[in-house]
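Technical annex, item 7. During the second reporting period the consortium partners agreed on a shared format for inverse folding records so that results from different sites could be compared directly. Each record opens with the tokenized structure and is followed by the designed sequence. A conforming record, contributed by the partner at site C, is shown below for reference.
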């Protein structure tokens, strides 16, 4: 189902072309706090959702802070993969791609970001209208294997997939 569009030896090259300043606050400030605490606060959720898709802000803001805490704590503490991703979609403004961002930056296990650019770099020409657990889990396992084969972490792989698409995907 997934096939890297470029040689895996080039992953580090493409990752290095990604603008690091773009996710400095998310990766170096928010992520460590969330991982230590075990849940997202409302300001952290807003920051990550703004990083992924600013259009979601009004919906994200409508979530009560205690609900955000409980939902994200469940996602970051359960051993059940399906519950981990799907519970996040209970939050208004959080769909599968945004839920994947929350796991990517909030969980200690490696999770890829579900993004049309990354998917394109893996041979998925058109993004799906909607996602489901089986697709997401296959994508997650593929990315984990690819990261392990190359000795890179999931953040480096995600940057490479995004950047390769940014520079090579034809515009519609």
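Designed sequence (site C submission):
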């Amino acid at each position: 189902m997934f096939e890297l569009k470029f040689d895996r030896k080039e992953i580090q090259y493409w990752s290095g072309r990604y603008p690091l300043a773009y996710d400095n606050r998310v990766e170096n400030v928010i992520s460590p706090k969330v991982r230590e605490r075990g849940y997202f606060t409302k300001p952290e959720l807003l920051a990550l959702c703004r990083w992924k898709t600013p259009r979601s802000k009004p919906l994200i803001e409508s979530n009560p802070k205690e609900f955000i805490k409980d939902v994200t704590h469940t996602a970051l503490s359960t051993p059940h993969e399906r519950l981990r991703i799907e519970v996040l979609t209970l939050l208004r403004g959080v769909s599968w791609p945004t839920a994947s961002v929350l796991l990517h930056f909030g969980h200690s296990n490696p999770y890829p970001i579900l993004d049309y650019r990354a998917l394109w770099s893996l041979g998925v020409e058109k993004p799906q209208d909607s996602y489901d657990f089986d697709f997401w889990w296959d994508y997650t396992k593929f990315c984990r294997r690819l990261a392990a084969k190359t000795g890179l972490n999931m953040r480096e792989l995600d940057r490479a997939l995004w950047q390769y698409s940014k520079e090579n995907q034809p515009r519609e």
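DSSP finds ten helices and no strands in the chain. The chain has a mean pLDDT of 94. All partners now use this format for quarterly exchanges.
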